[in-house]
Automatic annotation (TrEMBL):
PANTHER family: FLAVIN REDUCTASE (NADPH). InterPro entries: NAD(P)-bd_dom, NAD(P)-bd_dom_sf, Polyketide_Oxido-like. Pfam families: NAD_binding_10. Residues 18-50 are annotated as: Disordered. This is NAD(P)-dependent oxidoreductase. It comes from Kribbella karoonensis. Residues 8-204 form the NAD(P)-binding domain. It comes from the Bacteria. The lineage of its organism: Bacteria, Bacillati, Actinomycetota, Actinomycetes, Propionibacteriales.
Length: 215
């Protein structure tokens, strides 16, 4: 049994990861910003949008180094699926995670990343392909800056993202996943994506790199 902290456990990706980990018998602590103090998107827990969970969550802000250290103490791994619209949020969250996990003595971090900054089959970043939305490039770059923060740290991190997008039309689990290049047409359910997240928290096979996941 592993002890796993899920930061952003109220969001769709985080709540799915927490459910998957608990289903495997792991000791799971979920954390998210309290709803009452979050007028906008919750930095502690809305990667992929709001989930249906929330009961029993520990209060915790991913930007709070001390709180991260407190929640992560004694944990084997951390899964972080977080979101905020602030332009500097992702680099700030990455720096807080590096410092907080360092204080807690936790090295393994599984980060919910972004398909847009992954290479496609020919090596072109998805965000640079023809027809891909250009108006969100500052958001894409903020995600890349977060990965740069991780890369400069001593964490044993991995970033996993849908290779294209989440399958909002069909949320059912397909029973598997694979790692592959970015592809705007690729889809994966939150349930299947959660399997990949927990696999990398439980038995790490990928290290210090970003990967796309699809079914």
């Amino acid at each position: 049994m592993s002890k796993i902290l899920v930061i952003g456990a109220r969001g769709r990706a985080g709540s799915a990861a927490a459910a998957e980990a608990r289903g495997r018998g792991h000791d799971v602590l979920g954390a998210a910003r309290p709803r009452s103090t979050t007028p906008g998107p919750a930095a502690g827990g809305t990667a992929g949008g709001a989930g249906s969970g929330g009961a029993g969550l520990a209060a915790g802000d991913v930007l709070d180094v001390g709180r991260i250290a407190e929640l992560a103490a004694g944990r084997d791994a951390v899964i972080a699926g977080v979101y905020d619209a602030a332009p500097d949020f992702f680099p700030r969250a990455a720096r807080a995670l590096v410092e907080g996990l360092g204080k807690a003595g936790v090295r393994r971090l599984v980060w919910v990343g972004l398909a847009s900054i992954l290479p496609t089959a020919d090596g072109t970043l998805l965000m640079d392909t023809d027809g891909y939305p250009r108006e969100y490039r500052s958001f894409f770059r903020a995600h890349q800056t977060a990965l740069d923060v991780f890369a400069a740290s001593d964490l044993d991190w991995v970033s996993l993202a849908p290779a294209g997008d989440f399958d909002h039309a069909d949320p059912s689990a397909k029973g598997g996943y694979r790692v592959g290049p970015a592809d705007a047409r690729a889809r994966i359910s939150y349930a299947d994506f959660a399997v990949a997240l927990v696999d990398e928290a439980d038995h790490p096979t990928r290290h210090r790199a970003a990967h796309g996941v699809l079914v």
